Amino acid sequence: MAVLFSVTLPVFGLILCGFGAGRLRLLGNSATDGLNGFVYYFALPALLAHSVAKAPLADIFDWGYLGAVSGGLALTVAITVVLSKAVYGDGLSVATLRATSAAFANTGYVGIPLAITAFGPAAALPAILATVVNSMVIGLAAAMIELDQRESGVGPLGSIVRTLGTNPLIISVALGCAVALSGLAVPSAIATFLDLLGAAAGPCALFALGLFVSQQRAKEGRFADTLVLTTLKLFVHPAVTWLLTIAVFRLDPATTAVAVTMAALPTGALAFVLAQRYQVFVGRASSTILLSTALSMVSVTVVLTLLGA
Questions:
Q1: Is 297:12 a contact under the CB 8 Å cutoff?
Q2: How far is it, in rounded angstroms, from Cα 16 to Cα 11?
Q3: Are 123 and 47 in contact, with CB atoms under 8 Å apart?
């Protein structure tokens, strides 16, 4: 109950505020795009760049943590693809989006503010690193779909480079890494600017997610498929990540807690954006975001309690 009231309710309360504002039409239809644009292109990049720039290099290049986060993603994708082929007989595009819906966590909009609230400011950097790893899933997924649909003339490798090279979250982390590697201190005026802008990332991201979810409908989504994908996302993904942290990489309890919490988050909104862009798996991607977000308040509370948050 302590975790529920001190950590989970404040974070999901902001999502609920955005959801209520959307359903009550308190904000215009363009509010979601505007707020998402502010978070994605300004607030989150400021938070990421400054957090990475002032972090010790050993914390940035924590290969055990990165291995656990990447491995958990990869294993969840592999399990989902095997299921997709063996049970559903999906083609490459559908299998890719099914795997994206099961493995792509909402680390940027929910994970970073949740980690800071649950574990303190020190958890910001590992949450950011998980967000960077997570962002690469979208680049790889877009490349696989374009390879299947042959819509891009640049080929799958070019598609990955293009997608990742224009991602403001990855660009901001790269800039932060460059500053950290240089050993230079961020000037105080710039640091204050980044702190002010980055402070808006958490609440605005959570409110924007609520707005986004309020505008979605579970169209074309078969409930059985959605339930399977939600189970993979909220339970299988954190479970395999936890196994990797204790059995393979032997991370300390604090780092393990952040890695598993990031894996336990609901499906990220970009899974729907990707599905809508290519007009594949749109209904079930939307349904999975809705269901996993609704259930994650309970599942995340359980995970945080088990991890001793």
A1: yes
A2: 9
A3: no
- Strand partners of residue 68: none
Q: How large is the C-alpha radius of gyration of the chain? A: 18
Backbone angles phi, psi at 177, to 5 degrees: -60, -40
Tokens 């644009």, residue? 37
- Confirm if 308 and 243 have CB atoms less than 8 A apart: no
Q: Domains of the chain, with CATH numbers?
A: 2-306 (1.20.1530.20)
Closest CA to 176 of 71, 35, 44: 44
The tens digit of pLDDT for each residue in 46-65 reads: 999 999 999 888 888 899 99
For residue 251, give the 3-state DSSP assignment.
coil
**From CA 31, how far away is CA 130, in angstroms rounded?**
28
Q: Model's pTM, two decimal places?
A: 0.84
- What are residue 167's phi and psi, to 5 degrees? -80, 115
CA dist 163 and 210 (Å) reads 26
Q: What angle do CA 21, 27, 29 make, to 5 degrees?
A: 110
DSSP secondary structure string for all residues of 122-156:
GGHHHHHHHHHHHHHHHHHHHHHHHHHHT--SSHH
Summarised one tens digit per residue, pLDDT across range 171-218 is 999 999 999 999 888 999 999 999 999 999 989 989 998 888 888 776
**How long a stretch of residues is the chain?**
309
Distance CA 309, CA 301 (A): 9
